[in-house]
Structures are given as C-alpha cells and as structure tokens.
Amino acid sequence: MTEHVLNERRGAHLRLSLNRPERRNAITVAMYAALADAIAAAQDDPGIRVITLEGEGVDFTGGNDLADFMKEMPQDGQTDIPVWRLLRALATNQVPLIAAVHGNAVGIGTTMLFHCDLVLAEEGTLFKMPFTELGLVPEAASSLILPRLAGRQLAAKYLLLGEPFGVEEAERFGLVTHRAATGDLAERLETVVGTLLSRPPEAMRLTQRLLRGTSQDEVLERMEWENGHFSERLTSVEVREAIQRFFAARAAR
C-alpha cells in the first residue's frame, strides 16, 4: 500500500482516498495497484458493507501521472498491469461503492465514476476526459457506458472533443446522483454512508448485484477492446508528440 492512497477501515465502511494533493492527486502506477488491491480484497470481506472513494486537497484527481505512466508503459499483450487491474476490480465489484468528488476530475477521475453506484459531487466540480488531446482512446468502458447515459452526441462532445462539463450537466444525464454545496461534501457523504449502513447488509449486496445485472461481461469485453487500442496508442508518434506538448505547456505556465 502506497502512502498516496489512504486506506481506512471505519467499522463496516472502507474509506479509500487519493492522497497526493501536492500533485493534484495525479495517479501513479503504485496508486493504481493500491486501489485495485483494496477493492479486490473487499469482495471477500463480509464485514465491509460500503466503499467510498475520495480525494485529499483541492481536487479529486488530475488524472494519470503521465511521466510515471509512460515510464511504466505496458508491453504488448500485458493485461495484469495495475491500471487494468483497477478497472477490472471496479467492473466486478460487489460492494456498494460511493465516490465523493470535488475540484477537478480528469481522465480516469471521471471514467471510474461510471462504475460507482452513487456519485456525490461538490458544486464547482469539473469533469473532463481529454484522451484524444493526448493521442489516446477512452478507457474504463466509457465508450460503452457514456453513450448509454448521455446519448451518442453528448458522448462525442465529451470524448471526441474532450470538452469539460460541470455538476449540473453530470446530474442531468445521470453520472452524478447527489449534489453538495461548497464545503458540505464530507457531511453529505457521511449521511449517505450512514443510510446505506442502516440497511440490511445482504439485501444491499444483492440489490447492488441486481443493478449491475448481466452487463458485467459486456463491460469487461469493452474494457479489453479499449485497453488493446490504448496500449497500441501508447507506442505511437501521436502520443509521444502530444505528451511532449503537454509537458512543454505546463513548463511555460
């Protein structure tokens, strides 16, 4: 477990929090591994009845730590790397999962939310999936789930153009389930967690599984399809040039 992911057990509540605020909670390979391990382990622990995902500091997450990710770039055919393990853990999770987001939720900071049962967002939160800007393709089965939620045209707006969107729009198409006023996110989350923990635990788990229904295989299949393209893109000239531009722009600020 890395110090950049807080793993805190509060009775039946497992709290996972991204803890790299000085880097806007940019996710490293080690952080992916820690999250994947924690979510996978919770499946075999009947004492865990709710998992929450949060972020320390001013942002939920600024997305991938690109320098770290490119350094640990997967080899052809490699499917057990931490990021893919996390995505599969999210897709097969059987414990009610709540995300509480604020600030910026970039890249996987948005796509992981498609696998949460409830998403709480503080006013002012900004969601963005800038995959094509970096020469990449969507991941986390977002190319399947987002069009079903928002419609194909809005999905194209967010995935092809990479346009950001706010809490009101996210709530309108069904990504966000609860809104919180500025400064009230933690209290809102505590209330929702308390409600879930007050319900009979087996009924909660069974209902969560029923809600996921028969879509799990389809989601996993789409993830594998996306992951194959994603891995290929990582070795492309387009990606190298796009990431060089990203770091040059950041250095110029």
TrEMBL record:
UniProt keyword Transmembrane helix present? no
InterPro entries attached here?
ClpP/crotonase-like_dom_sf, ECH/Chromodomain_protein, Enoyl-CoA_hydra/iso
Task: List UniProt keywords, sorted A-Z.
Answer: Isomerase, Peroxisome
* UniProt-annotated location(s): Peroxisome
- Where does the UniProt entry say this protein principally localizes? other
Q: Which domain of life is it from?
A: Bacteria
Q: Keyword Isomerase, does the record have it?
A: yes
Q: Which GO terms describe its molecular function?
A: delta(3)-delta(2)-enoyl-CoA isomerase activity
Read off the PANTHER family from this record.
Answer: ENOYL-COA DELTA ISOMERASE 2, PTHR43684
Query: Which protein, by its recorded name, is this?
Result: Enoyl-CoA hydratase/carnithine racemase
Q: Please tell me the species this chain comes from.
A: Sphingomonas kaistensis
Q: What is the lineage of its organism?
A: Bacteria, Pseudomonadati, Pseudomonadota, Alphaproteobacteria, Sphingomonadales
